[in-house]
Amino acid sequence: MLEPKNNDELPPIPPKRYFTIGEVGELCAVKPHVLRYWEAEFPQLKPTKRRGNRRYYQRQDVVLIRQIKSLLYEQGYTIGGARQKMSDNPDELAKTNVNSGEIKTLVRDLEKVIASL
Q1: What is the pTM of this model?
Q2: pLDDT of 63 over the 70 cut
């Protein structure tokens, strides 16, 4: 879903369990108020809320936000169209999301391990 040219612009998702709304905004290049709006529009997006209604997103939430962003900003869907596309075939969307930055990092790490052997 995310085109390779646009995927390179987004930073890789770090191996953390939870992300704050500010961190997710930086990882997805979306402002926090947009993320809060998308929560109301996309039922799939449900971050964990803790003390003081602070939002904590998990890795799958970040991937979902990147998919939503791609549908809206790159593929030109409306909010309603993106919501329908995501509810029609959620499995297909998950299969097509490959973050080339993460793959490059993984390849580099594997090459370092091989070199040390």
Answers
A1: 0.69
A2: yes
